[in-house]
From TrEMBL, chains A, B:
The keyword RNA-binding does not apply. Pfam families: GerE. PANTHER family: TWO-COMPONENT RESPONSE REGULATOR. The keyword DNA-binding applies. SUPFAM superfamilies: C-terminal effector domain of the bipartite response regulators. PROSITE patterns: HTH_LUXR_1, HTH_LUXR_2. It comes from Seongchinamella unica. The lineage of its organism: Bacteria, Pseudomonadati, Pseudomonadota, Gammaproteobacteria, Cellvibrionales. Keywords: DNA-binding. This is Response regulator transcription factor. It comes from the Bacteria. GO terms for molecular function: DNA binding. Residues 138-203 form the HTH luxR-type domain.
Amino acid sequence: MEHLFITPAGRLRERWKQAFPGARAAVAVAEIGEATSGPRGIVWLDIASLPPAERSAEVQAAAAFGWPVVVMAATPGESEAFQLLNQGAVGYCHVKAAPEQLREIALVVEHGGFWMPPELMQRFIALSTRVVPTEAPVEPELNELTSRELMVAEQVAHGASNREIAAALDITERTVKAHLSAIFEKLGVRDRVQLALAMNNIPTYSTVN
Amino acid sequence: MEHLFITPAGRLRERWKQAFPGARAAVAVAEIGEATSGPRGIVWLDIASLPPAERSAEVQAAAAFGWPVVVMAATPGESEAFQLLNQGAVGYCHVKAAPEQLREIALVVEHGGFWMPPELMQRFIALSTRVVPTEAPVEPELNELTSRELMVAEQVAHGASNREIAAALDITERTVKAHLSAIFEKLGVRDRVQLALAMNNIPTYSTVN
DNA sequence: ATGCACATTGTACTTTTGGACAGGTAGGCG
DNA sequence: CGCCTACCTGTCCAAAAGTACAATGTGCAT
């Protein structure tokens, strides 16, 4: 496994040599543009001192080389991270990552995985759930609901509190609760939050319990 | 490195034994709920024959165990993948993945990486660039949330209770409440119901008081 | 008339939620 | 070094939500 560090300085940092004794350094990927047929390796791209505008192109060039590309940034930022990963990088870490960290990353990417700081990963996954189309809409059997229950359910679907519902329907809060209990039972939801989501055709996980 | 396969059948498939000769099998994570202090291992969760509704909870439970969780699905779908990763899984593969593949995945996740099929990863990246881009906020206010707050908000957006959120994020209920208070303040909503609706771009008319 | 579903309300209770007040830690920054 | 932010936690408390075990009334169908 070869390790190729692309860095403006053109020379390896101590940290890198510690991580991979046999590592090589270069100023640009173009400098070694033919080893595609040799043994697999990893390209480590130091973009810390690169103008932001050139980074994307640099990653593309490195990715074109055929080896997994790990980007090393000085100030890991989420928008940059994903832009660069989108350009073909498979790793994104801090330029001052410890040797052990680098070896971990190497293991991950050489086996087809992606690597980025855990916080970033968490955040992106969280964000993704917002845009990924969730099929399987849990279409509630609203037919099961009586007319009065349906009124209450609609109020909840719009975020109303029990007190507000009581006022709107001119009934007691107690009665609202009674209707709600019946609704929960019929629709198989646990509480008003899940009801509100179900009424808007939004699936809920953690429906258990 | 221990390999624990959670599968309804309770017994190892040939493929798994080939991949990890020392692997163990169990019907549920609860069955072995104390080895947290022992050597690190990986939990392989077979959700192929599990009702979709229970999968999320199962992943949560497995994640609570403390080991990296790899979900094995019969028909890998992107929405499910992201949901389950959001529940704490760090891997998502086909239940019939080849032994070599499993070993690759094991290497990746045991070194802190994430693994999912390349197509999914591509899709994931592509989607994320749509959400994250610097100055293209889908909901401007969401940018005000910190990373942790966003995670909590996501959970609420899917109907989770404080207790479930606490378990999922491995924090106390108190902390969840703290985050929620901050979220309510920042997003200008009154309670978790309105937050859940707001997160799903559903207007609420009773925002007053 | 009898049974039944629906709507309504009551009391009492547990659970959940959310806020108030008060900390503690860790990392980044001037 | 303080200062700030994010993150995490605690106790105490009050409101809201939800459940359990009721009762009452109305209309409708068998």
